Every structure is written in structure tokens, then in C-alpha cells.
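Quick one, T. Sequence first:
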Amino acid sequence: MVNMNKCLIMRNKLIPQLKFWIFLIWYMATSSVFVLSGQRFIQIEQTRDAENFRIAEGEIMEFKTRAFPNDWQKGKVEKILMEDQVIIFADQMIAVADITQVRIYRPLPDIAGKFFLLFGTSWLIYGIIALIFGLPNVVPQDLLIGLISLLLGLLIGRFSKRKFRIGKQSRIRLIDITFP
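C-alpha cells:
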């Protein structure tokens, strides 16, 4: 009986250690895969702003070029060629010198704006249907909640993107931080 208790005690000590080593091996294997893909990126810098915006390989970039100055183009950055200063997308290849504007989306305000838009729209639809059928729990003043939420969502969504004009104040740099 004493021998069985020693086995259980040994087992209870070995299983957490084994889980730790399996987790450590899994973490090292997966983190090295993800880190290698983000070693080259596009950095957008402004002269008077300490904050830099980075777009890594595999992320979506929205931009205007000299060839199409009125159209926003959007594409996934497939590869960055450092020697030639070229960004390769799925359907085209753009030189960094040809990019005139870049648009960056901030994820948190974008999500919040979409949430308020959805909430305001659904509240207005519910309120209008309830008023049409004469439900007693909805009064016309309740539609004001939906309208304010809708306007707030439009306002937040408007400020969720930031536009950079490439020139004196902003510039694009291609950066490669891979270890040789």
C-alpha cells in the first residue's frame, strides 16, 4: 500500500513538469513561425509625431499612387523587396516612390463605430415597427436613443481612419530586421 502511494506522489509531480515541457516546446515552435513572417515591414513616419505605423507582410494596406491619384487601392502585402524598394501585392507590384497617400485603420474605434451603427439601426427598426403596430412599451421619444447611437457610430467611424500624405511631413520606409 505504501508503494502505491509513492507512485501516486511521483505521478503528481511528473505530470505538471511534463505539461510544462510540452507547452514550452509548443510555444517555441509556434512563436518562431510567427516571428519570422514579421521581420520585414513598411513603416510610416511623420516628422512631428513620435508614433510610427507599421504594416507587416501579410497585412492589408490601402494606398493611392501617382498612376491613379483619385482611387484608393487595397491589397495584401505579399512580399517586400528591400533592394529594389518595391512592395509586392497579390495582383500588382508598386515602387515605394510611387505611393502618394496611405490610409491606416485604427481597430478599436472602427469596431466601436460599427457596434454603435448596428445598435442604432436595430433600435430604430425595432422602434419604428413597434410604433406602426402600436405596441404600448414604445413611445416616439425612444427613437431618439437609436438616432443618437446611429450618429455616434457614424462620428466614431469617421475618426477611425488616419490618412498620411507622403511628402515633406510623412515618409515611407521599408525596414528589415531579420537576423543574418
